[in-house]
Amino acid sequence: MTVNAAQSQPEEKTFTPALGLRALTPFYDSAIAMLTRETKWRSALIETIALQQGERLLDVGCGTGSLAVRLATEQPGAWVHGIDPDPDVLRRARSKAAAAGARIAFHEGFLTDEFVADADPFDIVTSSLVFHQVPLAGKRDLLSMMRRALKPAGRLVIADYGLQRTALMRRLFRATVQTLDGVADTQPNADGLLPELIHDAGFAGVEEARVIPTATGSISILTAHC
Predict the structure, then answer these.
(1) I need a labelling partner for 103 at 20 to 30 A (CA). Which of 40, 90, 165, 171 fits?
(2) When comparing pLDDT for 184 and 13, which is higher?
């Protein structure tokens, strides 16, 4: 049987730009700060991560580097890595790190088998406001890859839109996040599916450590371990 050359090529990975549109990337940091109670949830995320000296941490979908820079600044004895496929946000992340004097290794690309094979295992893998933008199959694949990137006793800490428990949070989430990022990829998060997906990826001890209401819906901090 003859196979079309286009059909034989592996599917190219794509990503959703910050705020859903590439043109909005310059406004990402200010929008997140203004609309998501960033100081509240990011501080809670950092407290939950509890990064220690000598530990290796990978921030998946590190974006403009806000989390990575704070972690590296507050715990300079740790080894912080960030990975993101978007070159625009990575340029901003590297500028932030340089301005803060933070030691961070930034990697452009997706979390892949090749990256995991080449990198030393991590004590902690984290992500923030990434999973709600990823298709369901991609959420499963990403969680599986994150588990592979961890040491046997490693920890997973995620901050993202989770179960929208109240009518108000559901309305706010629909009017903001789902308007920008679409319904198909974001609805599994709003339905509370993320903890189940984490468990299905082979993690244990899945917990929703915090739930923080915002003007764009509630953000959950989820933890698990290998």
Answers:
(1) 40
(2) 184
Report if pTM > 0.70: yes
Please state the length of the chain: 226
Quickly list DSSP for 34-72: HHS-HHHHHHHHHHHH---TT-EEEEET-TTSHHHHHHH
DSSP string for residues in 84-146: ES-HHHHHHHHHHHHHHT--EEEEES---HHHHHHSPPEEEEEEES-GGGS-HHHHHHHHHHH
pLDDT digits 0-9 by tens, 146-166: 999 999 999 999 999 999 999
Can you spell out the DSSP letters for 133-190? GS-HHHHHHHHHHHHHHEEEEEEEEEEEE----SHHHHHHHHHTHHHHH-STTTHHHH
